[in-house]
Each structure stands twice: as C-alpha cells, then as structure tokens.
Amino acid sequence: MHLMNSKFTLNIFHKVLITLLAVTLIPLITLWLVSNKAAQSQLTKNVSQSLVLTMDTVADGIEAWDSTNVRAMTQASSLDDMISMKAELQNPILSVTGTAYEWSYLMFTIAPDGSNVGRNDGGALTPYGDRSYFQQVIKGAPVGRQVVMGKTSGKPALILATPIKDPNANLVGVLAMSMYLTDISKIVTDIRIGETGRAILLDASNKVIAHGDSSKVRTALQDFSAYPALKVAGLADAPVVYSSEDRQVIGFMRKLPQGWTLLVEQDYDEAFATMKRMEKEARILIAISIVLVIAVAIFLGKALTRPINELTTIARQLSNGELQVTIEQTERGDEIGALARAIERLGVSIQLAMDRLRKKS
C-alpha cells in the first residue's frame, strides 16, 4: 500500500490569524502582566497596612483596658483598710471597686499563705494558694495574670492580681480581680476586618482570652498552642499568608507587654478579592480579544484567499488552453489586481502565440 505523506503548510488564513493574534495578544498580555504585578504589590501593601492598623487599634484597646484595671487595683491595694488584711475593712472597698468595673464578677484578697481573706460577693472563703497569678505576685511580679476555670463562676475567667504592701514595702497579701472572658472579649470582637477578619488574644500559655469569632469561644479553656499561626515564621515581623483550618489566610501577630499574644487574621480570598476580580476580568478580556481576532482573521482570510483561488483557477485554465476566460479582478488597485492584470496579459500572449502557430501551419 502506498501511503501519501501529507505535510501541513501554513496558508494565508493561518498566517493572518497568527499575525493578528501576535499583534493583539502580545501587547495585551504584557500590559496585563505588568499592571497585574503592580496592582498585586499595591493591594498586598494595602492589606498589610490594614492588618497592622487593626493590630495597633486592638493592642491600644487592650493596653488601655489592662492599664485601667491594674491602676484601679494598685490604688485600692494602697488603702489602709486594704493593707490591714481584715475582711471587715476590705469588703466595702472590694464591693465598691467590683461594682465600678462591670466586667468583673469577683474581687478578693489572699493572705501570703494562700487563704482567702476578703471578697465582694459575700461567698464562702476559698483557698487560692495553688493559683499561678497568686504565685507570680508572691514571687515578686508587679502583676499576676492567669486564664482559669473560675472556682466561683465555673466558667473561663481572667484573673488579675496585684500585691498589697505595708508602708515598709513588705508583702502582706494579694488583691485579685476575676473577669468573665466574654465581657473582656468586647475589645477584640468589636474589631472587624471585612466579613472574615478577626482578632484573637491568647495568654502567656496560649490559652484563649478572647476570640473575634464568637462561635470559637466555648465554656472550657481553649489551648491554642497548636494553632497554625503560632508556628508561622516571621509572622511577628510582617503580615504573612499561611494555611489555617483548611483555608488560606493572611495574618499578623504581636507579643504584648503582658506576655499575651495578639493575632489578627483575614481570609485570603476576601482580602485579595479585588485582585481575583481583576484577574477574572482580564481573562474575559483576553478571551473576547481572541474571539474577535479569529473573526477578523476569518473575514480577512476569505477576502484574500477568494480572489487568489479564482486567479489560480484561471491560470490553470490558461495552462490547459482554455483561453476564453473572464478575469474580474483586473480593476482592483492592490497586488491582487496587479496579479490579475499580469495573468490577463499572459492569456493574451498565449492567444497571440497560438494564432502565429496556426498561421505557420
């Protein structure tokens, strides 16, 4: 069997199509790549600035809240009645101070041996010597902090503690304030970044103090030591994109003076929605351009190939001795018209040559 090897060749249509695609798409795609890179850089900068500014806002609020509580407790602990370490003198102060700070549910004092001396709720005295915040103050810390399951409330609570010292600077006791985490979290939950942005506040042992997503807050202490963001390198230096809970997020982390960790996150898709929309619109524009180029190429290809095919047929007829042909393209002013006139002259020359041969014979 004889196999005919057909070799593909580019015809005029293919060449017109390739030329138009190159002339149209190369500048368009180049412009898109350059502008997309610049836009992505600017958007990344804007998103990062938004996270940093949000971080500053939340951190300032936490600092103000913490300073207010510590200052109130320091002032209360310096009163003579508080220094007396007598419950009957301390309880009125504890009651007034606790009422002034509505987010607190208990204010109490602890003797150096860990026994409970005074409290503002009139409840039964409870030993607190095993608590970390108490141990921190006993060991010389100016402020003790701990997230615990409150013995009184049975709910997660943040305990702040400050020393009670006599005029000779001797430690005579510890003043503590218990606060519901849900109340403190208002500082964090009031901050929103779009629909998915939120802030998370962790204590020194990475337990949740407040979470911007209320659905993440439970009645049991939550240990976030394994939270993905805490393992991301450089997150405390600048916003970083990483995976968290099966989604891409961009986040920023900061260590606060209290030893706490403040984390601000936003879903990547929302933060960079503008970029995705721009990319989608660019792809649509390129697709439309390709369709238009193909349509123009088909139109131009046919406009070029039709008269050339007709002249090819006429030239074939002349070569076969069919001299009575009509060439309609001779009136054109372009190269096709010039070719048509040349073929017409060729036909006349063939006719004259054949007439001379007939006369000789």
Automatic annotation (TrEMBL):
SUPFAM superfamilies, from UniProt? HAMP domain-like
What the entry lists under InterPro entries is as follows: dCache_1 (IPR033479), HAMP_dom (IPR003660), HssS/ArlS-like (IPR050398)
Catalytic activity as recorded in UniProt: ATP + protein L-histidine = ADP + protein N-phospho-L-histidine
Q: Which UniProt keywords apply?
A: Cell membrane, Kinase, Membrane, Phosphoprotein, Transferase, Transmembrane, Transmembrane helix
Q: What is its EC number?
A: 2.7.13.3
User: What are the HAMP domain coordinates in residue numbering?
Assistant: 302-355
Query: What stretches pass through the bilayer?
Result: 12-34, 284-304
Q: According to the UniProt record, what class of enzyme is this?
A: transferase
Compartments, record wording: Cell membrane
Q: Does the keyword Kinase apply?
A: yes
This protein's membrane topology, according to the annotation, is: Multi-pass membrane protein
Recorded protein name is histidine kinase
Q: Which organism does this sequence originate in?
A: Massilia rubra
